[in-house]
Specification:
The complex is a heterodimer.
Chain A (H helix, E strand, L loop, with lengths): L8 E3 L4 H10 L8 E8 L4 E2 L2 E10 L1 H18 L2 E14 L3 E9 L2 H18 L2 E7 L4 E3 L4
Helix pairs in contact in A: 2-3
Chain B lengths: L1 E6 L10 E5 L3 H11 L9 E4 L2 E3 L10 E5 L6
Parallel strand pairs in B: 1-5
Antiparallel strand pairs in B: 1-2, 3-4, 3-5
Classes of the chains: A alpha+beta, B alpha+beta.
């Protein structure tokens, strides 16, 4: 299965093994001196005495592909990074599981850290993704980003 | 113009996920939908026509696809 570069979505949680694999894949790239990693995890937010058990993510996939291409280009234009890898969950992710993974690499640390930070912020702000927070009593509320 | 509307996130609890409707421009579309679904009024919405986000009303052409989206909440 080949995945288009701008299709960042994975069905369900991001497996910790994927994170290890991405790190391992860069072992033979001798021009890299720094990686920066961001991992988003589902938090058990408390709302009116109930706690979030899981988040169900839905997306506008056509718009997301276009938007991701735009963000990816802007990051490569603005930071001397050698590569970037972005994964976001679609569908159900339980509390404690990983839903968002951003990985950037560069020769020196500042580019990787800056690019990673900007990617996280832009994806949260600009990607057409919606989270539905599910509670233990089968009720839900729609997540809002701060 | 007969156009296709796609809805996302919390809007799918008010409107169908996909439907066809006739409207001359996006302002007319939103006014008509808000009249039929009072829950829509005063909601913050992002509107994309053929996958381009619009900030001011635009004329619609036959077969355009209009996405109605609540504020994003990924991550």
């Amino acid at each position: 299965m080949t995945k288009q570069k701008n299709d960042i979505f994975i069905q369900g949680p991001i497996p910790p093994s994927l994170i290890a694999d991405v790190i391992a894949e860069h072992g033979n790239k001798s021009d890299i001196g720094a990686h920066s990693v961001f991992l988003g995890q589902i938090r058990a937010d408390q709302v009116g005495g109930k706690s979030v058990q899981a988040i169900e993510y839905s997306i506008n996939s056509e718009l997301a592909m276009l938007k991701m291409a735009e963000i990816r280009k802007a990051i490569f234009d603005n930071y001397p990074v050698t590569c970037m890898h972005v994964y976001h969950s679609e569908g159900l992710v339980q509390v404690g599981e990983i839903c968002f993974f951003v990985f950037t690499s560069s020769a020196h640390r500042r580019a990787a850290i800056g690019a990673c930070d900007e990617l996280v912020e832009r994806i949260k702000k600009e990607m057409p993704i919606w989270g539905k927070e599910l509670f233990e009593d089968n009720t839900h509320q729609w997540k809002t980003n701060r | 113009m007969r156009i296709q509307v796609k809805t996302f996130g919390a809007l799918t609890e008010i409107l169908e996920r996909e439907f066809y409707v006739t409207a001359a421009d996006t302002a007319e579309l939103l006014t008509a939908l808000s009249r039929q679904h009072p829950d829509l009024a005063h909601r913050k919405l992002l509107v994309a026509v053929n996958n381009t986000i619009i900030n001011t009303p635009v004329d619609l052409r036959e077969k355009d696809v209009v996405a109605l989206m609540p504020p994003y909440s990924g991550g």
